[in-house]
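User: For a benchmark we're assembling, each entry needs the component sequences followed by a predicted structure for the full assembly. Here are entry 17's components. Please fill in the structure.
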Amino acid sequence: MNAHAPGPVPTSSSDDSPIAVLAEEHALILRAVELLERGLARLEAGTSMGGPFFAALVEFFQVFADRYHHGKEEGILFPFMVAEMDYPQKSGPVAVLSSDHTAGRAHVRAMADAAARLEAEPAVASELLEHGQAYAVLLRAHVDREDHKVFPTVEDFLGSDERAGLCAAFARFESAEGGQRTAAHYADVVGVLERDMGRLDRS
Amino acid sequence: MSNHEHGHHHGKEGTTPTQILMAEHELILQALEALGKRLDRMGDDPTPADRVYFEKAVEFLRGFADKCHHGKEEDLLFKRLGERGFPTQGGPIAVMLSEHQAGRAFIRGIAEGAAKIGSDPGAAEAIRHNGWGYIELLRNHIAKENEVLFPMADRALSAEDQHDLAHAFERFEAQETGAGVHERMVGLLQELRAGAG
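Assistant: Structure for entry 17:
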């Protein structure tokens, strides 16, 4: 059958904690961030690291991290925090986390552009490095803020009704975003990139 | 997608063999749509993510479209139609069989193209050529079966034939596809849709 590394396969179901679902997705996102950092380190050292590797990571960040994961936060969790937990929308944690997402999108767009031109114009490596490194720093800090500061507070606030309501909303969102196995698919992609990277490191 | 769309009500009263096969056609058409989207988004320099995607597409097309679906047609439906007087060396059945063969060659081409990603600059062209070739072939093939062959089959097969075939389909699934394969195929189709672009 399929030899891809299995990896974590987060999907939402009603008996989960919605916060745990997001935290599991963070674990997959951090594996991709680590791959990005390792790829950038090779690029910086002048070791061969092709555009397609970065293009695959860009796809992961755009589809899984941004559309699928940040989409749930922006479309469901943050509005819940504003409406039910009285967080302000334009300041405080919700505003900071949302602006992280916006800043990240700009870096990923720049990485996509540089990755596509890397083979033809090796000089764009500097742009890839600049935006890639900035994105890795931003995303690590962002995930840390969510996992250690914001999410524990939300988790404490949730009763079983809120938990079930958020999980149901997550599941609806996931179905509309290509299906609940999006996470499984992108876990496979990350697994293959890790395997490729491991092979490069050994060669 | 839910399980009842495929494979879990073969013996159920009122579900004919051709209805079962047409329900499977719907799943195959969903996979073709996803594959086409992914082909559209693939650049000239395919990525490792493209490789993962096309390997999954090949696994689904071989495991579901070819083995599970075409297997039932070739080993059971077409055979029974032959026994009921349909020509098998010419006519629609021979055309369907040769299209199944052509489809296998396209799938092999996609698999070979995917294996070349990262090492051979011809990978994208091989995947595009064989991917679109397969999509076009299968869409036409499915339309011909749904609109021409299956209505002829429905008229030619007695109620008893249909009952037998529906049960034979169930046994075929149980024998030819191992434990967990059905769930794997359902999951793969979802992943193909999720990663289409």
